[in-house]
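Example 3.2
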Amino acid sequence: MRRGGYLVWMSIQIALGSTSQHKREALDRALSLHKMSATTVVHLFDVPSLVDPQPVGGEMAALGAENRARHALARCGDNVRYGIGVESAVELRRGTWLDVATVVIVERGIPRLRALATSVGLPIHTPDVEAALAAGVGTTTAGQQYAHRTGGSSTDWHREVTEGLYTRADQITGGIYAALIQVW
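Structure, written as tokens:
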């Protein structure tokens, strides 16, 4: 920002509605890609999404992400202007279940969303989704079913099914970056 011919560095403060290492890593990467990492302060908050542990579909994921963003922002003082929420959901497309992260950015005092974006969808094994649906998406996730079936990670099964080529943080980074460029 220029004031009186001088370049003034402005610090942006963001409340992230999660304490997940994958989401924090993804936010750090996206800020770096957007050349914002040096001027951004991130505050982490463990806040509820108020949706099922295994959201199904984009609407439920968007609602969960918005709830996380707004709850995190509410926990901050007025000096924090933006809240970011991330919520993943499974979505059925052309017979394939995908895990898709939805990202929302809200701004203090503005009721509408400032940004809404999604990540790349990564296929998740149909039996794991079906098991989560049968057990009740209010109590279990497809990732937990994957971990139960394979002994792998329930939070970063992405790394395992891609043989280390793609992680949960990789997936979320793209969604956060797509949201950031809508605001800044």
